[in-house]
Design a protein that fits this description.
The complex is a heterodimer of chains A (582) and B (163).
Chain A: E1 14-16, H1 17-27, E2 32-35, H2 42-49, E3 55-58, H3 62-76, E4 80-84, H4 88-102, E5 107-113, H5 129-133, E6 139-142, H6 149-161, E7 167-173, H7 174-178, E8 180-182, H8 202-214, E9 218-222, H9 224-228, H10 232-242, E10 246-248, E11 263-266, H11 273-281, E12 284-288, H12 294-297, H13 300-305, E13 311-316, E14 330-333, H14 336-349, H15 356-370, H16 386-396, E15 402-405, H17 409-417, E16 426-427, H18 438-448, E17 454-459, H19 470-475, E18 481-486, H20 491-500, H21 516-522, E19 526-530, H22 533-545, E20 551-556
Parallel strand pairs in A: 2-3, 2-4, 4-5, 5-7, 6-7, 9-10, 9-12, 10-11, 12-13, 13-14, 15-16, 15-17, 17-18, 18-20, 19-20
Antiparallel strand pairs in A: 1-8
Chain B: E1 2-10, H1 15-25, E2 32-37, E3 43-51, H2 54-66, E4 70-75, E5 81-92, H3 97-107, E6 111-115, E7 119-126, H4 128-137, E8 143-148, E9 152-155
The chains are: A alpha/beta (582), B alpha+beta (163).
């Protein structure tokens, strides 16, 4: 890559590659690096040891390091940084890298590699890191010359945090970390082959405005891009100005406040009736930082065929997200925040207003869908209902906690019932759907916001996938609250088996579960078991009152509860199954 | 529909695997792929022949542009262009067939570049179509070995693909 660099400062110090790597992190203002040492990164760990600016968090498994760095990035918007050794260090990290990649999370991953002379010889702890990670990173580098190290790390941070963000990996052979070079960290870099479009096309924005003003049945659909692009403020202002209905995707929760009456709930496979029906039946759809994926709009043919007259405006920083699954009428490539700000300015400057009469009739149609009360559940149940636990969690934390989750039923209930009013409060793996992320995500969030309430909503299956990180929480004193919705089943697998596989619960039962209370205690934390609905609120209050302790709440919930509504795979989003349909 | 994509990529280790990996990961077709250095030593030029609907080719172009090592992508088939492919064919050329083989090669403006008692090696340049036609004109049993480079393409006129 060609670079236009300022001349090398004559005063630049001579440092080893390992020292350069750490100095680069310091220059980037990195607070935490999550990692696990090993042979190929020993020089880098030595350099870490000799400084205080960058704090290293020692995890118990490399997957945990990546998830924790990812969680930190999701909550703060700053790039997460992880450091792992070659070979198994890298392969363990791959799940975490792929998880971040699927949700476009900015991360810089530094990996050790065997010495350059040994590369390709099947050396001890060697793997083709750049090859293995290529399909799940935004970009990666193998640094073969110590003189290229600083500039490569600069490029990594630049690529990870601009355009559509994503993880970038820098592979450093052991000899490169040992050799010396003059240190110079450029302030800015230019890559001729990488220049994401940021400014939306003015003419397209005008077209979008006209479509919105002419709409009879408008809908605004907001995805994770609005959170990554810090556009929550603009989204909220636009929805309120126009008085249009708004839905957030799983990744977009909090971009528009759930407590606003214009919020129709999350859409998609487990979306509300009102969100899915409005999405299917609208005449003008504004999509903001979203990608019409299979869990959101279901079958694209059904989505298109059911409403051929629907006009779609799509704002996204990544042109390849536009017209990928659904044909778009007005594509706008650019930063969602800036594009929305321009759109708002145009709307405010003009005299035209949306069609009030049409809007009123659209809202009354939406009210009729809302009246279905599709999220209702048995509140009088004598067995703890998982939805009830989330509602109580919302109450106890006043709706202001950072909530991380794992993957499965509990994730969907948390998304449906914890009404997120702010962006970056809901931390979950939407794209890859990685079980095990919840606890390490909570670690990353708690390190970033030590005073905030951090709850990890999980299930007894997911939590066991990274349970070893309870030890990391002890070491670094991370008093997160684990809310384990324990139904003794891989709940979502069980639900699909019930609906689509004739109740044959093949391998979805969790036999021989550990005693989670004792397990938490063994790791030096507080464990509590909750078995009655009446005890849920008290236990949650007690847990959150223990400010300086990690509390593991093992909550025994209804084994047979299912997530509703549900759109079966391959169906259209208006083909919902409701609890009463069964 | 058939498309010819011309791509300028950074001359970096791994750039080829990024492009090839993109096609396999997303299930796109590659009919042929050529890659070689350009007049600018920091860049290579790739020509990929692919097939797909307009939507798919639009996605391919967008996805290629997203790769950090890709400097520029152009769909040559959208405009006037020239395409050429080189083929080396080793054929049986013994006895009474020897003279006929030479004549067929001449008709297609092929050149015989190596000879033994029983074989010719013929060099042929042209569009994919022409090379296919030549192979069809030969007796299947006469073909011993075929090597094709895949298509290289360039825009017509003064227009050039530059970084």
């Amino acid at each position: 890559m060609e670079l236009k660099l300022p001349p090398l400062a004559e005063t630049g110090e001579t440092l080893t590659g390992a020292e350069i790597a750490i100095r680069c992190l310091q220059e980037e203002g990195v607070e935490f690096v999550f990692g696990y040492p090993g042979g190929a990164v020993l020089f880098i760990y030595d350099a870490l040891f000799k400084q205080k600016k960058v704090k290293h968090i020692l995890v118990r498994h490399e997957q945990g390091a990546l998830h924790a760095a990812d969680g930190y990035a999701r909550a703060t918007g700053r790039p997460g940084v992880a450091l792992v050794t070659s070979g198994p260090g890298v392969t363990n990290a791959v799940t975490g890298i792929a998880t971040a990649y699927m949700d476009s999370i900015p991360m810089v991953v530094i990996t050790g590699q065997v010495p350059t002379r040994a590369i390709g010889e099947d050396a001890f702890q060697e793997c083709d890191t750049v090859g293995i990670t290529r399909p799940c990173v935004k970009h990666n580098f193998l640094v073969k010359d110590v003189n290229e190290l600083a500039i490569t790390i600069k490029k990594a941070f630049h690529i990870a945090t601009t355009g559509r963000p994503g993880p970038v990996l820098v592979d450093i052979p052991k000899d490169v970390s040992q050799q010396s070079a003059r240190f110079h960290y450029p302030e800015k870099i230019h890559l001729r082959s990488y220049s994401p479009v940021v400014k939306g096309h003015g003419g397209q924005i005008k077209k979008a405005m006209q479509l919105l003003l002419e709409a009879k049945r408008p809908m605004i659909y907001v995805g994770g891009g609005a959170i990554l692009g810090e556009a929550s403020h603009e989204v909220t202002e636009l929805v309120r100005l126009l008085d249009f209905p708004c839905t957030n995707t799983l990744m977009g929760l909090g971009a528009f406040p759930a407590s606003d009456k214009r919020f129709v709930g999350m859409l998609g496979m487990h979306g509300t009736v009102e969100a899915n029906m409005a999405m299917q039946n609208c005449d003008v759809l504004l999509a903001v930082g979203a990608r019409f994926d299979d869990r959101v709009i279901g079958n694209p043919a059904h989505f298109a065929a059911g409403n051929a007259g629907r006009k779609i405006v799509h704002i996204d920083v990544d042109p390849s997200s536009i017209s990928k699954r659904v044909r778009v009428d007005v594509p706008i490539v650019g930063h969602v925040k800036d594009v929305l700000a321009e759109l708002l300015a145009l709307l405010k400057a003009g005299k035209d207003k949306p069609d009030a009469a049409a809007l009123a009739s659209w809202w009354s149609q939406i009210a009729a869908w809302r009246a279905k009360d599709c999220l209702k559940y048995d509140r009088a149940s004598k067995i703890i209902k998982p939805q009830f636990v989330i509602e109580k969690l919302w109450e106890v934390t006043k709706g202001d906690a950072y909530v991380t989750s794992d993957v499965g039923q509990h994730q969907m209930w948390a998304a449906q019932f914890y009404r997120f009013d702010k962006p970056r409060r809901w931390i979950n793996s939407g794209g890859l759907g990685t079980m095990g992320v919840g606890l390490p995500y909570a670690m990353g969030v708690k390190l970033a916001f030590p005073k905030a309430d951090v709850a990890c909503v999980t299930g007894e299956s997911s939590v066991q996938m990274c349970i070893q990180e309870l030890s990391t929480c002890k070491q670094y004193h991370l008093p997160v609250k684990v809310v384990n919705l324990n139904n003794r089943y891989m709940g979502m697998v069980r639900q699909w088996q019930e609906f689509f596989h004739g109740n044959r619960y093949s391998e979805s039962y969790m036999d021989a579960l550990p005693d989670f209370v004792k397990l938490a205690e063994a790791y030096g934390h507080v464990g509590m078991r909750v078995e009655k609905p009446g005890d849920v609120e008290g236990a949650l209050r007690e847990a959150f009152a223990l400010k300086d302790r990690l509390v593991f709440l093992d909550i025994i919930t209804d084994q047979t509860e299912n997530v509703f509504p549900m759109v079966p795979g391959g169906k259209g989003i208006s083909e919902l199954i409701l609890s009463e349909d069964l | 529909m058939r498309h010819i994509l011309s791509i300028l990529v950074e001359n970096e280790a791994g750039a080829l695997s990024r492009v090839a990996g993109l096609f396999s990961a997303r299930g796109y077709n590659i009919e042929s792929l050529t890659v070689a250095p350009t007049e600018d030593a920091t860049m290579s030029r790739m020509t990929i022949v692919t097939t797909g609907s307009d939507e798919i080719v639009e996605q391919i172009t967008k996805q290629l542009n997203k790769l950090v090592d890709v400097v520029k992508v152009v769909d040559l088939s959208e405009g006037r262009h020239i395409e050429r492919e080189l083929m080396l064919v080793k054929v049986r050329a013994a006895g009474k067939d020897r003279e006929e083989m030479k004549r067929t090669a001449d008709i297609f403006r092929g050149r015989i570049i190596d000879v033994t008692d029983k074989s010719y090696t013929i060099e042929l340049t042209g569009t994919t179509d022409k090379l296919d036609a030549f192979l069809e004109a030969l007796d299947k049993g006469a073909i011993l070995e075929t090597v094709r480079t895949g298509v290289s393409g360039i825009g017509r006129g003064e227009w050039v693909l530059k970084a």
